[in-house]
UniProtKB/TrEMBL annotation:
Gene Ontology cellular-component terms listed: chromatin; chromosome, centromeric region; Ctf18 RFC-like complex
Parts forming coiled coils: none
Highest taxon in the source lineage: Eukaryota
PANTHER family in alphabetical order: SISTER CHROMATID COHESION PROTEIN DCC1, SISTER CHROMATID COHESION PROTEIN DCC1-RELATED
This protein's name: Sister chromatid cohesion protein DCC1
InterPro entries, alphabetized: Dcc1
Keywords noted in UniProt: DNA replication
GO biological process, one term: maintenance of mitotic sister chromatid cohesion
Family of this protein: Belongs to the DCC1 family.
Gene (UniProt): Dscc1
Organism: Gymnorhina tibicen (Australian magpie)
Amino acid sequence: AAMRTRAEVDATLQTAKLNLAELLPAVHCLSFGPQAGGGECCLLQLEPGLCAELEAGHSLVIRGEKDEHAVLCSKDKTYDMKIADTSNMLLFVPGCKTPEQLNADPASCNIIHSQIAGFSNNYWELRRCRPKLKKLRKLLMEDPYDGPDSQKDQTSTFSKYTTEDLLSLIQASEEEIFHQLQVIDACKIEGYWRILDFDYEMKLLNHVTQLIDSESWPLSKVPLCACLEELGSLEPREMIEHILVSYGRKYVDAGEVFFEMREDKICRAIAQMLLQNAVKFNLSEFEEVWQQSVPEGMTTRLDQLQGLALVDKSSRPETIFLLKVEDLPEDNQERFNSLFGIREKWTEVDITPYIKDLCAEKQTVGALLTKYARSSMLNGVKVYNSRRPIS
């Protein structure tokens, strides 16, 4: 293509009725290069924080299996990826100078001939989203660990998962995955992440609480060494330590490691053990049995059971039953459908533990309820029911 001259450019500007005084003197003349096909390049719009991470040499990872919607992860955050179409064609021009750069360099030549290397009609847009962590528990629950002597463990056909496996299978950032492994009390056994079988976990916890009782240790000061010494013949020492880490807070005093046992978590686990064998439990009977079942010096309270069990105040007598938040769907609409299938009308107090994990950054439970539920008054109390008929 013949290069344009200044005279041609000025004539074009005049035809377009543009005022030369309002324009920069430099002119970009664009032509399509030989390889300027669309489709080879993808554009990704980044917020400044992510841009800085890439510039600092960190990488961003796209995660998801074939049947999953792709997400992009930094070291500690997860983003949904959506294609945004644009009505303006986006052109890729290597070495293109912005008006700021041209202004800073008054010597920049009058006419700049640039070749377009490619173009696009869309770009990937990122939206911060909740990490999709439900699958983590699901994978680890395929084959829970029930002790070193278990025959099942030797013959199991299920996959076991290393950190690398989880990073490739779970749609969440590394930090979010590690945090969740802590939340679900997973532990590493022979290089694989495992969740303890609930009965085995309760057996270990029982060993520890009985030892605390027989030694009359204060619940706020349980010595690690003595626990390992005493219980090491019954169970692997790393399992004893894992239970102390899961159900206690570790601290060091005068060079020795102690644990302050977490009353709420222990009471909650014992409630789960009592409730998992009954469909419904008479509430007052349950409260009595529960208080008798927890270690001496611990006090049971119903608010320890948020997201684990639900009280049915409408039945006579009142009952309580197991309803674990982690068994509910991860998708917002499906979660609400499932909850309204269990109970038609909910108070905000009752439903909050079952939806607060759905709140996105800076989102409130109230905002979620406004979007997915309809409110009404029942005997002077505000209740929420489904916006759509539940099939």
